């Protein structure tokens, strides 16, 4: 599903966030991306839906090469990928409901289907009573759940989540993990950057560890950390 | 684009207007103020223009025939004048009529001249183009039976120059005003959109195409323009009608008539609305374009 070949990313300020990454992620996989803060996890992820473009190297998404992708094709790539952003990225002037509906409006879904799917996903993340609130009226954890709901509402083949449990209490974190496990079981590929040792160790999946812009560990059913 | 998406964009643009409260107010106010200025200016300019036309059409050449000339000779002069290139209209006034007119304006003392009328017959000449007045007058003055030619020489020329300058200056001012307006308004709109830059980025991250982002913003521009035009259009209509009634009622037989509100007001309002919508859409388009590119 995703292939990176010798990907190198240097930000305009000179920081090298990816320093020659090779990786292959198959359809249906569940992948944790771990590593210390500033290691380049978010950068690694952002290049997959083309929020960032690598300085050199190649990235394939289902045989489409992303680095040479035309500007006008980018929206169609992003519609196939659900993204939970580390900073949520909710539209401040739209309500919870409207924020989630937006992802379906861009693909010109019919209002009745939108209503049904949004209601369903709101139930899933436990926000049915806050649908008319604006993002600034929500707690961090609630905003995160809206972001998660938006990422899965149009049933994408790939969900990328950047610390989706970062602001959640352990209980809600497990609820969210259950959702991810469920859609993964239905065949959705999940790539999830996380600092949550508890989850990684108890819910074993493939672990990709990034340090200093390089993949330093890639284990089939790894633990959060290889040191004791 | 599906029709439900069109409806969605329209709904979205109105929602955004109401949720952006004071930003909307600022933009609408900017349009309103500018349009009022433009409107007042156009009223003044168009009426000055009309005045200029009135005056131009009023310029006559008075040709006085030799007082001693016979009737046949005067007829010859009349024929000559009529055939002069550029002459549109010639009115004949006999020496008797001329004297009557003088008596009317200067009093009965002149009545004694009735015995021995010293005046010549007169011809009142209009040029097809008022600018040719001077050259036509010159031409006529060379004819054999011409005694005198009057047309308020220098004065007419000066008036024309003043009018010409006035029109050009007015036109220049309107253009300058229009540009200032566009700048002012596009800046206001840009400000409101700069504030939404992050929103545009987010929309794109969740898969919106450029046009999906752009269309609601441009529709917002249309509404801003229309809302901004309402007050100026209403005020101009009310005040111009009032002014017209007052002017034409009190000052009848005046040389200068104001333009008839029908169709002038219709044209003015149409123009104001067009300018407003154009500025609104153009402002939105330019600002969004900047952010979509990045
Ligand atoms: N837009 C940017 N411009 C310049 N430098 C950046 C930018 N984004 C990230 N960086 C730098 O790139 C490096 C990697 O950042 P990245 O966000 O990928 O780390 P991360 O592993 O996601 O960290 P965290 O766990 O804290 O989220 C950091 O040193 C960061 O300062
Ligand atoms: Mg990160």
Plain-language structure description:
The complex is a heterodimer of chains A (228) and B (294). Chain A is of the alpha/beta class and 228 residues long. Chain A has a domain at 89-155. In chain A, 31% of the residues lie in helices and 25% in strands. Chain A has seven helices and ten strands. A six-stranded mixed sheet of chain A has the order 6-7-8-3-9-10. A four-stranded antiparallel sheet of chain A has the order 2-1-4-5. The two termini of chain A are 33 Å apart. The mean pLDDT of chain A is 93. Chain B is an alpha+beta fold and 294 residues long. Chain B has nine helices and four strands, in the order ααβαβαβαβαααα. A four-stranded antiparallel sheet of chain B has the order 2-3-1-4. In chain B, α8 (210-250) packs antiparallel against α9. Chain B starts with a helix and ends with a helix. In chain B, 27% of the residues are buried. The mean pLDDT of chain B is 83. Chain A binds chain B through residues 49, 51, 72, 74-76, 78-79, 83, 85, 89-93, 102-103, 105-108, 110-111, 150, and chain B through 1-2, 4-5, 8, 16, 19-20, 198-199, 201-210, 212. Adenosine-5'-triphosphate is lined by residues 11, 13, 15, 17, 35, 37-43, 86 of chain A. Chain B: Part of the ABC transporter FtsEX involved in asymmetric cellular division facilitating the initiation of sporulation. Chain B: Keywords: Cell cycle, Cell division, Cell membrane, Membrane, Transmembrane, Transmembrane helix. Chain B: It holds the Pfam family FtsX.
């Amino acid at each position: 599903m995703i292939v990176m070949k010798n990907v190198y990313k240097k930000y305009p300020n000179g920081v090298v966030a990816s320093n020659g990454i090779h990786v292959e992620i198959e359809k249906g996989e569940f992948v944790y991306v771990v590593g210390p803060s500033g290691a380049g996890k978010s950068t690694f992820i952002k290049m997959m839906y083309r929020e960032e473009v690598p300085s050199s190297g190649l990235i394939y998404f289902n045989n489409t090469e992303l680095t040479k992708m035309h500007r006008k094709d980018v929206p169609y790539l992003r519609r196939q990928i659900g993204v939970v952003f580390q900073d949520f990225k909710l539209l401040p002037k739209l309500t919870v409901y409207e924020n989630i509906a937006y992802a379906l409006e861009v693909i010109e879904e019919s209002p009745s289907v939108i209503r049904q799917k949004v209601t369903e996903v709101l139930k899933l993340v436990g926000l049915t009573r806050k649908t008319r609130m604006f993002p600034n009226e929500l707690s961090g954890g609630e905003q995160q759940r809206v972001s998660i709901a938006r990422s899965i509402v149009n049933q994408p083949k790939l969900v990328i989540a950047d610390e989706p449990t970062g602001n959640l209490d352990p209980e809600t974190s497990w609820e969210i993990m259950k959702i991810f496990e469920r859609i993964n079981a239905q065949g959705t590929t999940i790539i999830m950057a996380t600092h949550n040792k508890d989850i990684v160790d108890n819910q074993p999946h493939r672990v990709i560890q990034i340090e200093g812009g390089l993949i330093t560990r890639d284990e089939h059913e790894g633990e959060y950390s290889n040191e004791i | 684009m599906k029709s439900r998406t069109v409806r969605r964009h329209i709904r979205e643009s109105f929602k955004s207007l109401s949720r952006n409260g004071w930003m909307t107010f600022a933009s609408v106010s900017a349009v309103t103020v500018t349009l009022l200025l433009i409107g007042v200016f156009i009223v003044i300019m168009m009426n000055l223009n009309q005045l200029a036309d009135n005056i131009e059409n009023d310029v006559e050449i008075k040709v006085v025939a030799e007082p001693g000339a016979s009737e046949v000779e005067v007829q010859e002069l009349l024929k000559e004048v009529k055939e002069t290139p550029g002459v549109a209209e010639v009115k004949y006034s006999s020496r008797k009529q001329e004297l009557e007119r003088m008596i009317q304006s200067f009093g009965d003392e002149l009545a004694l001249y009735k015995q021995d009328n010293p005046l010549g017959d007169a011809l009142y000449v209009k040029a097809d183009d008022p600018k040719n007045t001077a050259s036509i007058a010159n031409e006529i003055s060379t004819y054999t039976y011409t005694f005198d030619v009057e047309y308020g020489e220098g004065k007419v020329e000066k008036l024309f120059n003043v009018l010409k300058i006035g029109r050009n200056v007015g036109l220049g001012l309107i253009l300058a005003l229009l540009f200032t307006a566009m700048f002012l308004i596009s800046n206001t709109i840009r400000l409101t959109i700069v504030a939404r830059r992050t929103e545009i980025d987010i929309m794109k991250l969740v898969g919106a195409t450029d046009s999906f982002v752009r269309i609601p913003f441009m529709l917002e521009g249309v509404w801003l323009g229309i809302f901004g035009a309402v007050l100026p259009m209403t005020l101009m209509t009310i005040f111009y009608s009032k002014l017209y009634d007052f002017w034409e009622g009190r000052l009848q037989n005046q040389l200068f008539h104001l333009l008839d509100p029908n169709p002038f007001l219709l044209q003015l309002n149409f123009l104001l609305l067009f300018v407003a919508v154009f500025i609104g859409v153009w402002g939105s388009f330019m600002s969004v374009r900047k952010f979509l590119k990045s």
